[in-house]
Amino acid sequence: MLKKLLKVIELFKARISLSIALCGISGVLVMPEPHLGYFDFTILIISIFLSSASVSAYNQYYERDLDIMMQRTRERPFATGFFKPNLLWPLFFLSILIFSILLAAKFLNFYSAFYIFLGAFFYCVVYTILLKRRNIANIIIGGLAGSFAVLAGAAAVDPNLSGSSIILAAVLFLWTPPHFWSLAIAIKEDYKKAGIPMLPNLISLKKSSWIILSHTILLVIVSFLPFFFNMGILYLIGAIAGGTYFIWRSILLVSNTSKSNAMANFFASFIQLGLLLVVCIIEGAINYF
Question: What is the pTM for the complete model shown?
Answer without folding.
Answer: 0.92
